[in-house]
Structure formats: C-alpha cells, structure tokens
Amino acid sequence: MKYCLQGHDRDNGVQEMLISLLPDEPHDWVLQLPEDAEGCRSLAWEAGGAILSRAEIRMGEKRSAAQVESPLPAGADGEEYKRILTYTVKTAVYRALLPLLERKPVWGSLTGVKPAKPARLAIREGMSRDALDAWLRDHYDVSPRRRGLCIRSAEYAMETEDRLLPRETQLYLGIPFCPAKCSYCSFVSNDMARWGHMIEPYTAALLQEIEAAGELVRTQKIPLGSVYMGGGTPTTLKRDQLLRVLSAVNCSFDLSSCREFTVEAGRPETITGEKLDIMAACGVGRISINPQTMNDAVLRGVGRNHTAADIENCYRMARKKGRFLINMDLIAGLPGDDDAGLIESVRRVAALEPDNITIHCLARKRGARLYFGPTGQLPAETLDACYAHLEKLGYEPYYLYRQKYMAGGLENVGFCKPGAASHYNICMMEELSDVIALGSGGVSKLCSENGRRIHRVANPKYPKEYIERIESIAEEKRRLLDEREM
Ligand code: SF4
To answer: Mean pLDDT across the stretch 434-453?
Structure first.
C-alpha cells in the first residue's frame, strides 16, 4: 500500500502498522497521494494540549477513516513526545484499517517483537496485573488470549530476573551447518553437501575463540548462567568435533554457576546414541529434537530429509538415555500443511511428553527460498486449539516473541512442563542479561537500564570470514568485556 504523511515524520510507525496488518503486500512511502488514489494518508497535528492523528484509507472501492486524540502531559518533550506521537499515529492507522480487514488481528495494534517486555517493565513500575490487562485491551485492542500469554510470559521473566546473579551472563555457541537447508529458513545455515569441508577449520577457529573468551570470563570472574549451543544444527559436527567443542567449553569456562547447558540437536538424522553420550558426559542437560511438523509430505516439501517416525525413534533413544530435558519445535503455517495437520502434529508431539514444546508461526523472510510465498492465513483459532490442548496436558506458556511477516500476524510461544522453563530462552528473549556469543553469526549483547539499552557486537555471518578473522574477533570480544567492566 502506498502511504503519505502530513504534519509528522513517523514513517517507521506507519510502515510497521501496515506490515503488521497487511503482511502480504509491499508498503511504500510517497510524498503525496492524489485525492482519489488507493493508499493511506496519515495526518497529525497538535491542538488543545493533545496530539491528534487522522488516517484515511482507500483499498479498492472501500474507504475508511479514523481519528485518535492523545493528551500531552505538561512538559512532554523529546523521547516522550515522540512516543506519544508514534502511538497516536499508529493507532489511527489501525482503527482506519480495521473495518477493511477480513479478520480482526489478535494482537490488535500492538507491534514489536517482544510483547512481554513492556508488560514486565509496566509491572515492575507498579502496574497491577488487572491494570495491565486493561491497558493492553484499551490501548492496543489485544485479544484476551494474547493478553494472558503476554502477562504469563512477563511473570516467568520476572521470576527469572529475580534469580539472576550479579553480572550473570549467558554463553552462546553457533554451529552454522545443517544437513540440508529447509526452504523457509533464513539463518546462515550452510548445507553439508556444499560446505561440509568447512566444518573442521570452523571447529578449530571456534575452539580458539572458546579458549580466548574463557580466559576473559574467568579473569573477570563473570558468572555464567547458561550455555546454549545453537545453529544451524550443532549435531552436524562429527563425534570427535562435538567432543572437542564441548570439552573446550568445560575446560575454558567456570561452569559452577551454570543452571543449564543446552544443545539444539535439531534434526534427527544427525543425532546418534554416541553423540548423546558425549553430550551427557560433558554436562549437557537439555536438547532439542525438532520435528517442525509430523506430516511426512510437508517435511519433504520444505526440504527436510527425515520423517515423523524418525523423530519419534530419535526421541525414544534420547529418553532412554534418561538424562535430558527435551524441547520439540513445531512450525504452524508450513506450505502444504493445514489446520487439521497442525493440530495432529501438536497431538503427536505432546503424546511423547517432551518437557518443552515450542510452536512457531511461519515467518516469511529475506534469505529464505520461501521469501516470495504468501504468509498464509493461519487462523488464530487453530493455534488457540493447539494451546488449549497443551494447557490441558499441563504445559504452560513461558516465553513469547513475534516477527515481521508472520503467518496470520500471530506469535511464537514456548510451552513448558512445570519447572522445565529454559533459563537461556527467557534471558535472551526478554534481554535480562548479557550474552557472549561465539562462532559465526553470534551476536553478543550487553544489556543495561533493565534491558532498555542493548549494545550489540556481531561476529561475521559466514564461516569463511569468521575463520579468516578469528584473531581480530577474539580481540573485539576482549574490548567488549573490558568496556563492560568500566
Ligand atoms: S535445520 Fe534449522 S537452521 Fe538448519 S536449515 Fe533447517 S530451519 Fe534452518
């Protein structure tokens, strides 16, 4: 949709709202829209101690308009003025567009990827749960189910925050290789057939970074709260490579304060009994075995070379080892899947009784082969039926995030059995603590002001560049941690 602004400069806010409500079309700013043209005209002005915004929209033959007024507190300037202006402009666009949509968005006008974070900050500032619920309803038109998800996730985040040690930091290790690339994936995951020869030099470089970072963390006596090895698919490493990396983590870091050690094993064709034994021996207590769907045709369609039965067999093998908390990821909205297929996948996975189940909604992304496909019309009711099934079995939603261009404008939710929430996932998602990220694609974060300010330092995205620059990367990390100490 074309849009123009009059009387304000909140371009990002208008675009964010349009993307959130109409994710399947491009949205372009134009200087002016002729009177009768299709598109959105967003106006704002000040009068009587308030900011007013009006949005006028034409889609095909349909027209709609809405006006919103927000009082300006005395002396509001700078950031606060911008925040109120952005809210007013976005809300006017939302209300104007609402009558033209086929479905009411369950998140209302609330945009942003971490809905539980402002909820947590509001509770910390003294807002009661009831007042927060009413605020999400009245200010953002959020549906009851999503308000509940938001508040429950905020509560989990606060419990986690209260347990954090002074200066606690989480450690991430990235293994950017996969057996083959899934069509919906936008991560820098390098498929083995083409990039398998890079794994050994990559492992050597990663070991170097682990050793250098370990020395820094030990010297500065930084307590590690968790270790998370993700990717990619970390279990694409061969046995000896996996052993070398996990042993290096144990030797280089003091893990005495570490609450959990996770390896995102991911794809069943890469998981063997021997690798599970190595993980257990090296202190790994949590793994992921990710089906994405339990429909074999859909799995084939998105380029995954395993079946639902492989997942079940792999899960049973890991359970027999008896030592792991197990997470299983599912994706709603995969091409070729439908509502009944999603519900069946959730039922089959839940029947295995993993400790965590994470339900993602497909998000269309640059870099994924599916980028030009539609986001799909995943109905919120289908997802709600899945959530209700999990809750009936004793699972609780514990973390939550959203992405741009998500199927149905929905969300990703992690569910856990009581006591099995992932510390790392909550810390990461809610930006509760610093993260030191090692390996290509890793993004280290220094969080300050209760997660309101984040300083990010990214390692190179691609393994080749990572290997070539390993010396300077270790030096950058040293500077980052020295900066934090000051
Ligand atoms: S296994 Fe995961 S990281 Fe690898 S290509 Fe598939 S979705 Fe991407």
So the answer is: 86
Say how far apart CA 57 and CA 54 lie, in whole Å: 10
**Which residue minimizes the CA distance to atom 2 of ligand 1?**
232
Q: Is 306 in the pocket of ligand 1 (CB under 6 A)?
A: no
Ligand 1 centroid – CA 335 distance (Å): 16
| Helix orientation angle between 144-163 and 129-140, rounded to the nearest 10 degrees | 130
Domain 1-101 and domain 164-485 have a common topology:
no
State the average pLDDT over residues 138-142: 95
Helix locations, 50-143, DSSP H: 78-97, 116-124, 129-140
Atom of ligand 1 nearest to the CA of 232: 3
Say if ligand 1 is within 6 A of residue 231 CB: yes
With H, G, I as helix, E, B as strand and everything else as coil, classify residue 221.
coil
Asked if 295 and 345 count as a contact pair (C-beta separation under 8 A), the reply is yes
- Which atom of ligand 1 is closest in space to residue 292's alpha carbon? 7
Q: 43-72: buried (b, 16+ CB within 10 Å) or exposed (e) per residue?
A: bbeeeeeebbbbbbbbeeeeebebebebeb
Q: Please report, for the chain, the start and end positions of each structural domain, with discontinuous segments joined by +.
A: 1-101, 106-152, 164-485
Share of the chain above pLDDT 70, in %: 95
pLDDT, one tens digit per residue, over 89-135 is 999 999 999 999 988 999 999 988 899 988 999 999 999 999 999 99
- The Å distance, Cα 161 to ligand 1 centre, comes to 30
CATH hierarchy code of domain 1-101 = 3.90.950.10
CATH for 164-485, among 3.80.30.20, 3.30.565.10, 3.30.230.10, 3.30.70.20? Answer: 3.80.30.20
360 Cβ closer than 6 Å to some ligand 1 atom: no
Instruction: State residue 15 phi and psi, 5-degree precision.
Output: -65, -40
- Left, alpha or beta for 219 (phi > 0: left; psi -120 to 50: alpha)? alpha
Q: Which of 182, 293, 298 to mutate to test the pocket of ligand 1 (most atoms within 8 A of CB)?
A: 182
Q: Which of ligand 1's atoms lies nearest the C-alpha of 184?
A: 7
Q: What is the pLDDT of residues 393-421, one digit of tens each?
A: 999 999 999 987 776 678 999 999 999 99
**Residue 42 near residue 7, CB atoms below 8 Å:** no
Q: Is 189 in the pocket of ligand 1 (CB under 6 A)?
A: yes
